Amino acid sequence: MRFFLFIILIIILMLAIRMFAGRVQTLFKNMQSNASQPPATRQSQASEAMVQCAHCHIHLPRSEACLIHGKTWCSEEHARLGQK
Fold this sequence. Notes:
two-stranded antiparallel ribbon, single chain
């Protein structure tokens, strides 16, 4: 009986080591891929161009801005009110 429990313990230990090694390997690959990219590329993935509303002058991401008549606005209401 002890021999059987010892074998099961060894199998569980080997599976745990394999799982841990797989996670470490995945983490290492992710770190290598991030390190191989130039800093400008890494920054462009995390940031977005900012634009300024022509009415209230707040800055907001380009994807959230309204482009109407060649000017950027934070909302359609400010585009209707016009430039200050």
